Amino acid sequence: MTDPIADFLTRIRNAGNAHKLDIEIPYSKMKESIARVLKHEGYIENYSVDTTGPHKVLKVRCKFVKRSHAIVGLKRVSRPGIRRYVGASEIPKVLGGMGISILSTSVGILSGYEAQKKNVGGELLAYVW
Which of 23, 24, 32, 91 could form a disulfide bond with 112, CB atoms 3.0-4.6 angstroms apart? Predict the structure, then answer.
């Protein structure tokens, strides 16, 4: 697998389209950080790390609002072939502020709003709306 973040986002998108409540994803620190941002912003209900098996697994509980998935769309911006970096003043607004951008900064994985508050830029990972 060349892009584990795109795989993570695709699994969340597919689970929402299939109306699945719980999904299991192979664990990594970056995926856990992205799940933390999604939970903080209200796009997923909860997440946990399962260490009982031979490999760690990230369990994500999707959030549904009136029988539709809380995440309407996801877009991977910075890919392994084309990296996209933005400064603190260049962080884009998604759907006029209705969505979020997820950035990998020197402080950690942050939403676009948190990165602007801390005045840090970084690699623009994804858009979520």
Answer: 91
